[in-house]
Each structure stands twice: as structure tokens, then as C-alpha cells.
Amino acid sequence: MSKLWGARFNKKSDPLADRFTFSIGYDHRLAKYDCLGSMAHAQMLAKQGIIPQADGVKIVAGLKKILKQIEAGRFNFDTKAEDIHTDIQNRLKDLVGKPADKLHTARSRNDQVVLDMKLYCRHELVQLMASVGILQNSILGFARKNKDVIIPAYTHLQAAQVVLLAHHMLAYIEMLERDKARLLDCAKRSDSLPLGACALSGTSLKTDRAYVAKLLGFGRVAANSMDVVSDRDFIVETISACAMIATHLSRIAEDLILWATREFNLVDIDAGFCTGSSIMPHKKNPDVLELIRGSSAKVVGHLTEIHVLLKGLPYTYNRDLQLDKPPLFDSVDTTKFMLLVLSRIFETLKVRKEAAVRQTADESFFTVDVMDYLVKKGVSYRQAHDILGCMVRDCLDRSKAISSLTIDELRKYSPVFGGDVKNLFNPGMSVKIKSSFGSTNPKLVEQQLKTWSKKLHA
Ligand code: ARG
Prior knowledge:
Elements: H1 15-21, H2 24-27, H3 31-47, H4 53-71, H5 84-96, H6 109-145, E1 150-155, E2 158-164, H7 165-189, E3 192-193, H8 209-216, E4 220-221, H9 225-230, H10 233-259, E5 267-268, H11 287-311, H12 325-348, E6 350-351, H13 353-359, H14 367-376, H15 381-397, H16 407-413, H17 427-432, H18 442-457
Parallel strand pairs: 3-4
Antiparallel strand pairs: 1-2, 5-6
Helix pairs in contact: 3-4, 3-6, 3-8, 4-5, 6-7, 6-12, 6-18, 7-10, 7-18, 10-11, 10-12, 11-12, 14-15
Bound molecules: arginine.
Residues 23, 27, 83, 109-110, 113, 317, 319, 321-322 line the site of arginine.
């Protein structure tokens, strides 16, 4: 099929150049958005009297037919077309004949492609938000099922203090909520109509951009034609939001991978989400989680790719910009897939409750609680830290449990110790005595679970 710009040349383009420059192989994914944008554009041209009403009607009817094919999955893109804009233009010509030649009035592929990409992003940002919500829900379900489980929590990957498992899960939910906010923020900032900027300077034809914006549901009309055809910030931001999600999912995956080891022994990943070894028959490997962790590398890589693509570009449009699509599409696809798979993993995840009980029995988890005990009795924080430091060191040296010290032995460290300190040496008490807002206190955690339930089901 002919190119949209062929007439100027006295020679056909080299097949190798075609292969190198054609974007139809990936931008065919914009077909639906290209049709929708063109329909609005044709309606505007007809309303403004720039093209005859009858032509406008024919163009819109033709585009509707193409759109139906696309939506029914019967649209096979033409590999001989340079890009999706050319492909749809050619098909329209086949369908409606001459009026199709008027569709490209008062626009350029430079603003057209930005419109298509914005419509794509708008759709996908909503999908991504929904997928994050589904993951939050399945994490919440897992937290509720295991409300009473207490687990060790770590800093420096060294056992630190005990927390409710649900508290840990709520931390993930908070993190993912910020991801949703970032997606929404990106959608809001991209809510301006690019079409009508034309090549870069606008047009002398009497277009009505506000009308097109209204038809396509944009809140604003982009105010500078040069900015429109240069701007790919909305793509950087979409990939960036995906990269942040991917990084978050990678961290969650890493926690679960560790917890599923014999050494941590906290969770059992459903066999449907594990694989075996070709040589070691006993193995049950968390490959699916490992690939969630691994896939995040791709998305973070795409963020670098898009930044490098843009950083040296002179204003305004340059063909380099065509290459914004593969990293965007793959970031969105990969992130959605990761979200879906991780949601399923949480739905089927089991906690090894007895192991959790065994692991949280270690008394060193409660040293901060004993310090708080001393502080409540008037000992300074610094002094309390020293007292506990000495106790821990002596007990380690003598292979003794702190809880086995007699009251007389305890009083050698501090005269304020009473028998009641012994109540502190259990994980249930440790979480219960936390009372600050945002802490792992069971009542507060229960409240948070309820709040999130309402919020996520709203
Ligand atoms: N395939 C091109 C892209 O994605 C469409 C715009 C082409 N514009 C041009 N002036 N060659 O950027």
C-alpha cells in the first residue's frame, strides 16, 4: 500500500529502510484509539464546515466498521503499511472511497500519534489501578485468614521484633495504595487533548479543538502546539508508575521467597505456583515468585530506556519518538501480568502456624519491651539500653534464657525490676502492649483491616 508521503519522492524507499522504520508491527495495538480519535476529528471537521457534512458522515460510518472489526478481533493489520495511521487511512479509502482523503485535514501524524498514545494510557492506567486493587484485596484476604498469627520481623535481615502477620500485610497494602495514587495522578496530568497541534504550529483552518476534547472526554485542550508534539512525559510517568509497582512486587516476592525457605519456614506456596528440579527430586522451587522479581528488571530497564530516548531530542517531533511504544507496551503488559499472578499466589498462600509460634519464642525479641518497662518505672532510655545490653550479653555467655533469671538476679541489673517483668516474655504480650497509632497492636490492626475492607470494596 502507498505511503502517506510518497508523491514527493521519485524513487521507492529501500526495503531495508522500510523494515527498519515501519512501526506497524507494534503500533497496531493503537488501532482502536486511532479510529476513535479519527471519528471525533471527522465530526469536528464536518461541524466546522471544513469538510462537507456528507463526507463526514461517510468517514465516521467507515471508521465505525473498522472499529467493529477491531473490537471483534477480526482486524489483521497490514504489514505493508508504514504504521497504524497509514493502515487505517488505507482501509477507510477502500471502504468509503474519496471522502477518506479529507480525513487528514488539519492534523498530522505528529499530533495523531500522541492522541492515540494518550487514549491508550488513559485506558491502561485505569486497568492498572484495578489490578493493583485486586492484589490489595487478595493480600487483605490472606491477612484476615491469618489474623492471629504472629511472626518475626527483621531489620538488616536479623530478627528484630515480633508483629502480627496482618500488620505486615497491611504494610504492603499501604505501599500499593501509593501506587494507585501515582497512576491516578499520572492520568490527571495527561488529561489534555493533543489533537489539533498538527505538525507543530497549529493550523489556519477553523478547527474547534474544545469540541474534539469534549467528544473524546478530555478535561482540557493542550495549550501549546509545540509542546504537544514533543511531549512524552505522560509515557515516562506511566512507565515510572509501572516501575515503582514492579519494584514493590519484587520486594514482596523476595519476602515470600525467603519465608518459603526451610530456614525461615513461615509460608507454604501453593504447588501450582512452584516448579521442581530436573535433578533434585525433593525440590519445590518458587520460580513464579522469582520471575516476578526478575520481571521487575525489565520494567525498570524500560524506564531508563525512555529517559535516554528523550534526553537528547531537539524540539519538536523526531522519529526517535516512535520507539516510545515498545517500552510502554511491555511495561504495562508485564506489570499487569505480575499483579495478576501475585494476586493468585496470595489467594492460595498458606502460613506454617506452628513454625511461626516456634520462631517467635526467642526471648531476644522482647528486649525493647523490657526497656519500655524500665522507662515506665523512671529509668532513662540510655540507662535501660545499657541494662538490657548487659543482661543479653551475660545470658548469651551463660547460655541462659532472660526469663529464667530470678528476681534477685534481675535486681542486680536494676532495682526497679519486679516479678511482673516476666509477663513480657511472650509474643502475644509483645504485640498487645504496643499502643501507638500505626503500631502492631491487635485492636489497631483489626481496625485497619476493617478500614481497608471498606475502602477496597467501595
Ligand atoms: N509511527 C510514528 C510514531 O510513532 C508516527 C508519526 C510519524 N510522523 C512523522 N512525521 N514521520 O512516532
